[in-house]
Amino acid sequence: DPNEDTEWNDILRKHGILPQQIKITQNDIYDSAVEKAREEHEHRLDNLDLDELDELEDDEDEEILNQYRAQRLAEMKAELANDKFGELIHISEPDYKREVTLASRESWIVVHLFRDSIPECKLLNRHLSVLAKQYKQTKFAKIVSVECIHNYPDANLPTILVYGKGDMQAQLVRLDKFGGMRTRKKDIETYLKDVGAIDPAQK
């Protein structure tokens, strides 16, 4: 048995015929346990929220707790910054400049020109509502077509206007290219990715 601690095996190990025997001592076990305990202690605060950190105030070093509080607040602010929107909002003509033109300097905006009487518009509103929840860094808005562009023909509906960098970047007139009422959410999602309105990394 190459694992036996015999004189012959010692000779074979000395000449490299057998690998050196690895011996785990009691000290090794102790050192491993100490290292594990140290790591657990270092990361004990990682998953606590702000209220739980406050409860530990008497037990932990104040400076360490303040560092974790600052880190957690920074993480929360970053999450809020990334989740600016999250729903398909209905805007009217007086809101357009503020909610779309000016706001597009700060973020991408997808505007749906619609009429409730047109089935394809209802379908597109459903798809955009879902996408708005998935891509919260992009603003999704809908406006009655004739409020946005007076005398805009129903034959051009639904229409998507994509704004970014303070100006219109793309537009999609009707859903014919996607099959009209057979248009899937994935079709609209791919189109918006292609024109840069939504970032795949947001999802």
Automatic annotation (TrEMBL):
<dbReference type="GO" id="GO:0006457">
    <property type="term" value="P:protein folding"/>
</dbReference>
<protein>
    <submittedName>
        <fullName>Thioredoxin-like protein</fullName>
    </submittedName>
</protein>
<dbReference type="InterPro" id="IPR036249">
    <property type="entry name" value="Thioredoxin-like_sf"/>
</dbReference>
<dbReference type="InterPro" id="IPR024253">
    <property type="entry name" value="Phosducin_thioredoxin-like_dom"/>
</dbReference>
<feature type="domain" description="Phosducin">
    <location>
        <begin position="37"/>
        <end position="197"/>
    </location>
</feature>
<dbReference type="InterPro" id="IPR051498">
    <property type="entry name" value="Phosducin-like_chap/apop_reg"/>
</dbReference>
<dbReference type="GO" id="GO:0005737">
    <property type="term" value="C:cytoplasm"/>
</dbReference>
<dbReference type="Pfam" id="PF02114">
    <property type="entry name" value="Phosducin"/>
</dbReference>
<comment type="similarity">
    <text>Belongs to the phosducin family.</text>
</comment>
